Amino acid sequence: MRIATWNVNSIRARVDRVTDWLERADVDVLAMQETKCSDDQFPTMPFVALGYDVVHCGFNQWNGVAIASRVGLDDVQVGFDGQPTWSDKPDVEAAAEARALGATCNGVRVWSLYVPNGRTVDSPHYIYKLEWLAALRDTARGWLTHDLQAQIALVGDWNIAPTDEDVWSPEFYANSTHVTPSERAAFDAIVDAQFADVVRPFTPGPAVYTYWDYTQLRFPKNRGMRIDFILGSPALADRVTHAEIVREQRKGKAPSDHAPVLVELT
Fold first, then answer.
1. CB under 8 Å, gap of 24 or more: what pairs does 125-129 form?
2. Per-residue pLDDT tens for 148-196?
3. What per-residue string of b and e applies to 56-66 under the rule 16 or more CB within 10 Å gives b?
4. What is the C-alpha separation between 206 and 226, in angstroms, rounded?
């Protein structure tokens, strides 16, 4: 079984690239983030034509998460229990954003996650990000308390570089989000809740990234960040036989600024 995650940075702009790669890479389940469309705008038919069922959660042109599976798509859940809410406007009631979507695919509970960016360290969005991660940790820990043998994959764009090795220049990102001690501690807390980074053993650094900004020739210069991860419960981690960051998909015409991340399970 092959599970992948990819921040596609607008599925309508990149559906051909995504489905072409799905077919060539023989992926069974693909979690997508930053689809940037509402549910009725999602281009479902190209996935269906390849034999995938698709579920999507998107409310507007921001955020958005999806899962495409050819091995079953059951028990779909929009948002996780306790997911924090957000509103940019004081006159608009806070609501859960389109950032978390779960489904069971051939016995594996896959969560497509688009962790809030945080914006700046003095922004309310940064506090929201930390609260969001804390709530995810608590909920995910509860899943394993209920069933330690549960096969769970927490996958997606985490908007955190857990170590200095995960950025091209720690000095460049100093005092920025993604690398602060609080964000890294929040990521480590989820790992400590028994969700292992199952990709890192197969993709050791340094200079191994999943995201490169479009500006200043960041990709050709390999000035990137590793912020896209697959974290697996103990039962899932035991099944991982291979993992990779598919860097080639950052190349070519009109790519996403993220590369897919892929794992193989026995």
1. 125/86, 126/177, 128/84, 128/86, 129/159, 129/177, 129/183
2. 999 999 999 999 999 999 999 999 999 999 999 999 999 999 999 999 9
3. bbbeeeebbbb
4. 10
Residue with the two structure tokens 């689809």: 35
CA neighbours closer than 13 Å in the CB half-sphere of residue 180: 17
Distance CA 158, CA 137 (A): 13
**Nearest by Cα to 102 from 87, 92, 94, 112:** 112
What is the pTM for the complete model shown? 0.98
Q: Which helix (H) or strand (E) holds 81?
A: none
User: In this predicted model, what pLDDT tens digit does every residue of 69-94 receive, in sequence order?
Assistant: 999 999 999 999 999 999 998 899 99
12, 36 in Cβ contact below 8 A?
A: yes
Place of tokens 């004081």: 90
12 falls in which pLDDT band (50, 70, 90)? very high
């059951």: which residue's tokens?
Answer: 74
Cα end-to-end distance, the chain, whole Å: 7
